[in-house]
Amino acid sequence: MAQEMLRCGTAEIDRLVAAGLPYEERSGVRHFDANDLYNLGMYSTTSKTQPELAFRMLFRFAGRPVDDLLRTKNWDFQVHLECPDCAGEAPWRLEEPDIVRFGGNVADVTAPAPGSGSATYTATVTTTGARTPVLSPVLRQLTGEYLAAGYRWQMIPVPMQADYALVHELGATSCIAASLLLAERFRGAGYRAEAKRGWFCGVLGGALDLPHACVEVEDDDGKVKTIDIAKAQLAARLSASTGEFQELCLGSIYNKVIPSTASGNAALAHHECGSRTPVHVRADIRSVR
Ligand SMILES: [Zn+2]
What superkingdom heads the lineage (predicted)? Predict the structure, then answer.
């Protein structure tokens, strides 16, 4: 799997291990951490690893004219919940799509009934876009400083992202950690701001299950704006022709994001069975044709 993801041979994997790539040996087979492999692939600069190809494909939209991102769009929205060490029948709690505030809609909702083990939430979610750029020069400056600081975007496990001070001390960043830190800086400058989690649409399967988060902040005009700091940063890294999209990330709303009610460092779902093992949440969001 490591060779496939990094498009390299055994000799190269051996060299990575010799250079310090951590692994666990189970029945004579080396197992690597998926995030480690992902980050290695993403910054391999060979342009042929799976993460590099996946990111280029995923962010192709960011280089196109942004009008498409402002249209109304409908999504078949499914979230699978799995309670790995389930202790029995109990209600499920999901932080649901919270999009009406941003001109969208949620319909045909099937919320899971109390049960055990696993459950599914389905809905049809309508998203839309609007150009509502951030006006405050202070917010603009803080955002610009963050983007210019050169933190390296990485795949980081969600529980570690909550420790955003540690993540940034390591020179790294990620969607949730970036949003938590920027929200803190906005509050420090006297603004009302909160990092919120949500879903990034059009990312199928577990191959690239990007945890999404952004900052919601009350701008000088009294309106709540969203700053998609990590997407702005990723787009800038992937291609220079994404300037229009990067600007859209600074306050405007676009149709590939579904915000949830969860705050930046909260879980997207709980099962009230009493188990302490976190619920796995996997989204499958498909465009309705
Ligand atoms: Zn359970």
Answer: Bacteria
pTM: 0.91
Can you tell me the mean pLDDT for 68-72? Answer: 95
73-112 pLDDT, tens digit per residue, is 999 999 999 999 999 999 999 999 999 999 999 999 999 9
CA distances from 212 to 196, 200, 203 (A): 9, 6, 11
For ligand 1, the distance from its centroid to the CA atom of residue 90, given in whole angstroms, is: 7
Cα–Cα distance between 188 and 179 in angstroms, integer? 14
For residue 198, the CA-to-ligand 1 centroid distance in Å is 23
- CATH of the domain spanning 137-263, picked from 3.10.620.30, 3.10.20.30, 3.40.1410.10, 3.40.190.10: 3.10.620.30
112 Cα: distance to centroid of ligand 1 (angstroms): 13
Q: How far is the CA of 87 from the centre of ligand 1 (A)?
A: 5
Query: What spacing in Å lies between the alpha carbon of 270 and ligand 1's midpoint?
Result: 8
23 vs 222: CA distance, rounded Å: 50
Helix %, strand %, coil % of the chain (to 5)? 35, 30, 35
